[in-house]
Design a protein that fits this description.
Layout lengths: L53 E3 L1 H6 L10 E3 L4 H12 L6 E6 L1 H11 L3 H16 L3 E4 L1 H24 L13 E2 L4 H10 L1 H4 L9 H16 L7 E7 L3 H6 L5 E2 L4 E2 L3 E4 H10 L15 H4 L7 H9 L25 H14 L9 E3 L2 E10 L5 E9 L1 H12 L7 E5 L19 H19 L19 H4 L24
Parallel strand pairs: 1-2, 3-4, 3-6, 5-13, 6-9, 12-13
Antiparallel strand pairs: 7-8, 10-11, 11-12
Helix pairs in contact: 3-4, 3-15, 5-8, 5-13, 8-12
Length: 501
C-alpha cells in the first residue's frame, strides 16, 4: 500500500505527520547492545547488525501521537488486497465456512464505472458478479441505506443541539453542546482533530457514525442472525474511496469484545480493486453478464425477518421489488461526500423555521471552491442558519484558526480531508502517468456520473419511521445508541520524542 495515498491531512510533514516520518516526530528503532562486564574483555566487531523489519497495525497509528517508527520499511498489515485474497483462501478450506459480505459505497462505483466505461446498471452487475463468482462472497451490499440512517441522525443531532442553545438564556448557553457542529464521517479529519486539537474540536464533533460503520454494525448483527451464526463468523469487507477508511475500521470503538471481531474486518479502495483485476488479467466488463443473486433477493414473503428485509433493501443488485415499492435511492442526498450540509440544512429549515423546500446557494470564500458558505434567510432577510463546506487541509486550517480565535460563526460544517471531497479520495482510480489536466478531466467525469446516477434526487427523509421503504423502518434496525453513535478521544502528545532530523 502506498503511504502517500492517505489524505493530505495525515501527511503534511511541516505539521504533525502521523503516517510517514515527519521532521520532528521520529521514534528510532534501537538495537540492544550487550555490554562487556569483565575486566580486560575485548570486543570483536562482526559487522553491522541488520535491523529487523518493523510490522505495525493501523491501530498503532491511531494510538500514537507522533510517528511510530523511523524504520525504512513500515508494513501496514491486515488492510490490503493481499490480505483479502489470503483470508478468502483460508475460508475456502474451513469446514464451517465464514460468511463473506462486501459493502460498496456509491463513490467507489462512480470511480470504477468511469475507469471501466460502464453504465450504472453494468457496474453494479459487474461488481456483484465479480465478488460472488470469484471470491465466493455471499452478499454484496450498497452502503446507501446506512448512509440514509447517518444523514437522518445527523439532522436530528443538529436540530436538538440548536434547540438547546436557542431555549437557554445567554448565561446558560455555555452549558449546552457547542456550535458549530462538525461532521465526523471523514476519518482523516477525525484523526487530525484527535491528535492536534482534541480539547478544542472534540466537543464540536458529531457523534453519528459514518455509513461504513453503521453498515458494519448492521451486517455483523443481522446477517449473522440471518445465517444463524455468531458475528465473528461473518467476514465483512467494505469498498471505500479513501485509504483513511482503513484507519476508521481499525478503531477500538468499533471492536466487539464479546465476539472478538470488528464491525468492518477489511477495507479496500477503488484503486486496489483495479490492481487486483490487473494482476489477474481481468476487466470488470467481463463480469457484465446475467446477475448472480441469492434466494433472499428473489423469494419474496409477506412474513419476512428484519434481517431478510435489510438484505433486500441493502443489496447492490436488487431483485424484483415488493409490490408498490421501488428500489431506494442509491447515493448521497446531494453532494459527492454524502450531502450532509444540504440534508441537515433543509430538515433544520423545515423543523426550526417552518421553511419548506429551501433553495441553497453555495458561495465560495475568497475564490476557494473547497470552502463554501450556505446561508438560510427568513422572510425578513435575516440569516437564521449559516453552514459551510470545508474540504482539504487548507480549508480545515482556516476553520480551526477561526475557532481558536472564537470567530467561527457557522452553525454546521461539513468537513472532509480530501480537496473536492470523497469523489476525489486518495483511494479512487488514478492515472499516475497522466497529467494534472487529465486527472481533473477524469474527476469531472466521475462527478458527472455520480450526479446523474447515484445522487439522491428524492425529497428529504423527514420521518424516522420511513428511512428507506415501508417494509423496513429505522427503528427495526436501530435498537440503541451504540448502533448509530460513537465517541472520540484526544491523543496526548508524546513528549519523549527527542530525536529530530
Amino acid at each position: 500500500m502506498s503511504i502517500n495515498r492517505f489524505s493530505s491531512t495525515l501527511q503534511l510533514s511541516d505539521f504533525d505527520d502521523f503516517i510517514t516520518p515527519s521532521q520532528e516526530c521520529i521514534l528510532p528503532i534501537n538495537v540492544k547492545k550487550n555490554s562487556a562486564t569483565s575486566q580486560g574483555a575485548t570486543v570483536g566487531i562482526k559487522g553491522k547488525e541488520k535491523l529487523k523489519k518493523v510490522e505495525i497495525t493501523l491501530n498503532d497509528c491511531l494510538a500514537c501521537s507522533g510517528c511510530i517508527t523511523s524504520a525504512e520499511t513500515v508494513l501496514v498489515t491486515s488492510q490490503s488486497h493481499q490480505q483479502f485474497t489470503k483470508v478468502v483462501e483460508e475460508i475456502a478450506c474451513e469446514d464451517e465456512k465464514r460468511i463473506i459480505v462486501v459493502s460498496i459505497s456509491p463513490q467507489v462505483r462512480a470511480s470504477l464505472a468511469v475507469a471501466s466505461c460502464l453504465s450504472h446498471d453494468e457496474i453494479s452487475t459487474a461488481l456483484n458478479n465479480y465478488f460472488m463468482s470469484k471470491y465466493d462472497v455471499k452478499h454484496v451490499l450498497d452502503t446507501a441505506f446506512a448512509h440514509q440512517l447517518s444523514l437522518l441522525e445527523s439532522s436530528q443531532e443538529f436540530i436538538q443541539r440548536f434547540k438547546q442553545r436557542r431555549s437557554n438564556t445567554p448565561g446558560d448557553v455555555s452549558a449546552c453542546p457547542p456550535l458549530p457542529l462538525l461532521t465526523s464521517s471523514c476519518p482523516g479529519w477525525i484523526c487530525y482533530a484527535e491528535k492536534t486539537h482534541g480539547k478544542l474540536l472534540i466537543p464540536h464533533l458529531s457523534r453519528v457514525k459514518s455509513a461504513q460503520q453503521i453498515t458494519g454494525s448492521l451486517v455483523k448483527r443481522f446477517i449473522a442472525r440471518h445465517h444463524d451464526v455468531t458475528p465473528d463468523r461473518v467476514y465483512h469487507v467494505t469498498l471505500m474511496p479513501c485509504y483513511d477508511k482503513k484507519l476508521e475500521a481499525s478503531r477500538e470503538d468499533f471492536y466487539d469484545d464479546v465476539y472478538n471481531t470488528r464491525d468492518v474486518d477489511l477495507v479496500l479502495t477503488s484503486g486496489e480493486i483495479t490492481e487486483m483485476l490487473r494482476l489477474a488479467g481481468e476487466d470488470l466488463s467481463e463480469f457484465v453478464v446475467k446477475t448472480t443473486t441469492n434466494d433472499v433477493i428473489n423469494d419474496i414473503s409477506d412474513d419476512e425477518s428484519v434481517a431478510t428485509k435489510l438484505l433486500r433493501t441493502a443489496s447492490l443488485v436488487r431483485g424484483a421489488p415488493p409490490s408498490g415499492d421501488g428500489a431506494p435511492p442509491s447515493g448521497g442526498y446531494n453532494g459527492g461526500s454524502g450531502g450532509y450540509l444540504e440534508f441537515v440544512m433543509k430538515n433544520a429549515a423545515k423543523e426550526l423555521f417552518n421553511i419548506e423546500g429551501a433553495q441553497l446557494q453555495y458561495q465560495p470564500t475568497r475564490n476557494n471552491k473547497d470552502l463554501q458558505e450556505v446561508k438560510l434567510r427568513d422572510d425578513s432577510g435575516e440569516v437564521v442558519l449559516n453552514f459551510a463546506l470545508a474540504y482539504g487541509f487548507r480549508s480545515i486550517q482556516n476553520i480551526v484558526r477561526r475557532m481558536k480565535q472564537n470567530k467561527c460563526n457557522y452553525h454546521y460544517i461539513e468537513v472532509m480531508a480530501c480537496p473536492s471531497g470523497c469523489l476525489n479520495g486518495g483511494g479512487q482510480v488514478k492515472d499516475m502517468a497522466g497529467s494534472k489536466e487529465e486527472e481533473r478531466a477524469r474527476l469531472g467525469r466521475v462527478v458527472d456520473f455520480y450526479r446523474e446516477h447515484l445522487m439522491q434526487a428524492a425529497a428529504p427523509l423527514l420521518q424516522r419511521s420511513d428511512v428507506s421503504t415501508p417494509q423496513l423502518q429505522r427503528d427495526d434496525v436501530i435498537t440503541g445508541e451504540k448502533d448509530i453513535m460513537t465517541s472520540y478521544h484526544a491523543v496526548e502528545k508524546n513528549e519523549n520524542i527527542s530525536v529530530k532530523w
